[in-house]
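Question (not urgent): is this output format expected?
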Amino acid sequence: MINIHSSSVICKNAKIGNNVYIGPNCIIGFGNYHTDLSFLLNHEQIFQEVFIGDNTKIMGNAIICQGTIIGNNNRVDYHSYIGENVKTGSFVDIKYGARIYNNVQIGNYSSITSFIADNCIIGNYCIVQGNLFHKFKNVIYGTPEASPIVKDYAFIGMNAAVIGKTIIEERSYIGASTVITKDTKPMRLYIGNPAKDVGNAPLPFLKKPYE
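Got this back:
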């Protein structure tokens, strides 16, 4: 069974799994630079396929762009934006108003609350409440910048910033409003601006992020 609200616009190239819910005013499967709805409706054949996995819920006013694969049992909350060629695993929770840009990869059971720049990689069982940014230094137009990598079981607190070609190692814990510009160590707690290693990280989050 598929339940799609009549006000949502779904590209013909969208492949939708079983038991999927899509709420009101969603836009699924189009390009990320086109805002003219009449253009979208008349040029669907140019867009890459988008896949929505089984048992996934996409709440109202969400946007999911072309080429993206949303895994099984995901939840995409209200007013969320997911760019082109994003790939999520299973049981991923995209929180209210999250912004995930192009070519991002997200593992299983992870939770995303914030801004995720192009080409970031996020592992399994991660909680990302802070932002993952590019460094924007010596930028060459058209050349992708190095992006943050977040490994399994990492926690990034609210309003934290991970900047540039930075690796957040497994089970690292980044406190709220912390600024990370260098690789972390596994199982360590980081606080402050600039970030300081202040001890052992708390135990990881092991349940589904939206239970």
